[in-house]
Amino acid sequence: MIAALFTHRQYLRSELLRTLRNRRLFIFSLIFPLVLFYVIAGPNRHDHSLAHTGIPATLYFMVSISSFGTMTAMLSAGARIAAERSTGWNRQLRISPLTARDYFRAKIVTAYLVAIASILLLYGAGISLGVSLSIGRSAGMFVHVLIGLVPLAALGVLLGHLMPYDSTGPVIGGTTALLALLSGTWFPIPDHGFVHDLALQLPPYYLVQAGRIGTGAQAWGAHGWVILGAWTAVLTLLARRAYLRDTGRPR
Amino acid sequence: MSRPTVHLQGLVKRYGAIEAVRGIDVDIAAGETVALLGPNGAGKSTTIDIALGLLAPDAGTAALFGGPPTGAVADGRVGAMLQTGGLIPDLTVRELVATMASLYPRALDVDEVLGIAGIADIGRQRTQKLSGGQTQRVRFAVALVGDPDLLVLDEPTVAMDVEGRRSFWSTMRGIAGRGKTILFATHYLEEADDYADRVVLMAHGRIVADGPPGEIKALVGTRTIRATLPHADLDALAALPGVTAADRRGEAVVLACSDSDATIRALLAAAPEARDIEISGAGLEDAFVALTA
Q1: How far is CA A158 from CA A31, A243, B211, in A?
Q2: Please, are residues B23 and B206 in contact by the beta-carbon 8 Å criterion?
Q3: Which of A178, B1, B54, B287 is deepest in the core (most CB within 10 A)?
Q4: What are phi and psi of A227, to 5 degrees?
Q5: pLDDT in tens, A196-231
Q6: What is the residue extent of each domain of chain A?
């Protein structure tokens, strides 16, 4: 169990409990993507190569819309951090034996579990519209998406230390909407031109590309790994700086 | 004194051009209950934040139990109730206190703590549905549940009504009786007077007095004399026997006295036209005014 990795298991349990009880998060990370999937993929279910990508529409949207749900889940960790900063609860935790490492781990593990729930729901919805994948391909997609979410976890923590709590809704909603548009969530990114060139430099594009595994192709090549690695490094560094500045510690 | 529980030496903290704390030196021994008393802006919260390791001082050192504050915090030896702070939502009161208890190596029984804090009856309520006073009590339970050796409370009764305040402090008396070291900040003079063994009076980022509540009163005058005396010469009044400070309020003068008997005799001899004379026992309020003027 993941919980066994933690010094403070009950803290993680409470974080999960709080997440399950947070109705808004539930709706935006889990229900909303599911509805979008049926609305968008339903009418296109017989399109076997969406916009000449070679990927069936149902498979494409199953993965692309799950990327929307998982991004929301990851960035919501930031909203939770911002909320705890705004009430001063983070200061209360800092005078307890909970380490900063365990605090962030609990936030990120919680975000990942919501993301995983979102993926599984979307995969189930995909199957209901006729997506048929081997266990191996499904697992490959799943793992690639989890890796693709790492930079977004760092972005969530960063935003959590930069945003005032009252702006978390618009910031997270706006960021997710923009990233979704640039990653091909609603429609495949054209295979050349400015939007294409820009999209290829951003991590969420690769979340959507994980869908290629479903057709037997590779999700992304070396460029994808470099982009994901670079964004993870930069965002982690910025998140760390924001955290240190927020807690008034020398850098 | 053997190794103090709290050791603050030469603390300085600036926020831009403002010096919030300008050289604080305090040692607190194990088992003491110390009040940090002063008006808003005196530097109490900044001092407490530094002592807890939440804030790095620009100069000076803070130590708890002979080591860095963060070490004592990591060992679970410190419990604190900060001045500002809400609770996290979507947990019940009991779940929240139990979660915090789980972080400490030697936590107390959660139900016992809910009882001590007077919130056993709201254990099943969600934290976002509490009154201000209830929230304070939950925060108090959170500070207490780790069974810390040092309890730090920054303006703990600020959201409580008079009755709540009284019962809070009677609870605190019981806890102090268990040998805990307690440091609390307050701007309620009666609280410092009634519940502390020792009062550290702060103003403008400095300590202006440090001693037992009785000694502080003696230091600055235990009584005040107020009299209507137009065109009085303040310097002459201040020089009267037993006067520690003289002040004018319109046509009246107010004398802070260390020996009001001597002062009243001298005042009537020097200024027989003085009328409407009132002599009143001074609390820390007057000590405070005299010392920080």
Answers
A1: 26, 8, 47
A2: yes
A3: B287
A4: -60, -50
A5: 888 888 999 888 888 788 777 787 888 889 999 999
A6: 2-246
Nearest to B143 by CA among B189, B175, B177: B175
B276 in Cβ contact with B230 (< 8 Å): no
- To the nearest whole angstrom, how far is the Cα of A244 from the nearest Cα of chain B? 11
pTM above 0.90, yes or no: no
Q: ipTM value of the model? A: 0.82
Chain A residues with beta carbon closer than 8 angstroms to that of B55: 248
B99/A87 Cβ within 8 A: no
Q: What is the pLDDT of residue B287?
A: 59
User: Best mutation site among B70, B103, B124 for testing chain A: the one with the most A CBs within 10 Å?
Assistant: B103
CA angle, A235 then A238 then A242, to 5°: 135
Closest to A89 in 3D by CA, of B99, B110, B8, B279: B99
Indicate whether A250 pLDDT > 60: no
CATH no. for B218-292 = 3.30.70
What is the architecture, at CATH level 2, of domain B6-212? 3-Layer(aba) Sandwich (3.40)
Contact partners, residue A79, CB within 8 Å, separation at least 6: A159, A160, A163, A165, A168, A169, A172
Chain segment B92-106, per-residue pLDDT in tens: 999 999 999 999 999
Residue B16 gets which letter from DSSP? T
Q: Which two tokens stand for residue B167?
A: 């019962």
Q: Which amino acid is at B43?
A: G
Is B84 in contact with A8 (Cβ distance < 8 A)?
no
Mutate to test the interface with A, among B90, B106, B139, B153 (most CBs of A within 10 A): B90
* Inter-CA distances, A86 with A11, A17, A74, A250, Å: 20, 21, 19, 22
CATH 3.30.70 domain extents, chain B: 218-292
Both tokens of B2, joined, read 């053997």
How many other C-beta atoms lie within 10 A of the C-beta of residue A95? 25
A91: closest chain B residue by CA: B54
> Left (φ > 0), alpha (ψ -120 to 50) or beta: where does B55 sit?
beta
The neighbouring-strand residues paired with B150 are B78, B181
**Packed helices A32-41 and A100-128: angle between N→C axes, nearest 10 degrees:** 30
d(CA A159, CA A78): 6
